[in-house]
Amino acid sequence: MKRFTSAMLLLLVVGIAGAVPGPGNGKLPVVKDFVVAIDHTKLVPLDTGVMVNVGDELTITTARNDTWTLGCYSPIYGTRTCDADGLSNFPLYSYGGFTMPYGTLAGQIDGGDYFAIGKSFTGYMTATGQLQLLCWDSYYLDNCGKIKVNITNNPAAVPVPGALLLCSVGTLVVGYVRRKLS
After folding, report:
1. CA dihedral of residues 80, 81, 87, 88 (deg, nearest 10)
2. What does the alpha-carbon distance between residue 50 and residue 13 come to, in Å, rounded to a whole number?
3. Phi and psi for 144 in degrees, rounded to 5?
4. E strands of 7-143, at which residues?
5. Where are the chain's structural domains?
6. SS3 at position 163
7. Counting beta carbons within 10 angstroms of the beta carbon of residue 28, is it exposed (0 to 12), middle (13 to 18) or buried (19 or more)?
8. Superfamily covering domain 23-158
9. For residues 170 and 10, is the Cβ–Cβ distance under 8 A?
């Protein structure tokens, strides 16, 4: 009977260890490199193809010395070159309830709320959908340049259902055996 109890206790321990959340359903982090190029013929953000879910940890970094230029084709304001943190010596731009420096690398999930990325961003996603990137500006048709970005998406931790079942069965068996012995 001691062997049986020891075996059930071992099953219980394995079940509990297996129930500890790991990477989301066995998914490994998604790591992608992109070049966010300003295409002055389009007014749409770059669709990265990176799918994010609520709770995923997203990390985005840019190449240190990459810049893009706002106003490449504008004689009114002249050219303004900046990195992914945007223009520091220019007024802020507000759109859709969000305010950031002109030229900031910004993100959006499936056309939802914007969020500032800049040179480096780490945060937990509050929406599910495709990650889109863009240069924060009021007029895209006079911009040029590109910035390289690295995107790492760590899926949210989710408990493994089979491990929870194993833990529950192990607990029930140990309780049954203890009851029989007393």
Report:
1. -100
2. 37
3. -155, 165
4. 30-37, 46-52, 57-62, 68-70, 80-82, 92-95, 98-101, 105-109, 114-116, 120-124, 129-135
5. 1-20+159-182, 23-158
6. helix
7. exposed
8. Galactose-binding lectin (2.60.120.430)
9. no
Helix (H, G, I), strand (E, B) or coil at 63: coil
CA distances from 156 to 48, 59, 125, 171 (A): 19, 13, 9, 27
pLDDT digits (tens, 9 = 90+) for 94-116: 998 999 999 999 999 998 999 99
> Which one has a higher pLDDT value, 45 or 86?
86
Give residue 57's pLDDT: 93
In sequence order, the β-bridge partners of residue 134 are 106
**pTM of the complete model beyond 0.85:** no
Q: Which pair of structure tokens corresponds to residue 3?
A: 């062997």
pLDDT of residue 150: 92
Taking the CA atoms of 17, 23, 28 and 33 in sequence, report the sign of the dihedral they define. Answer: negative
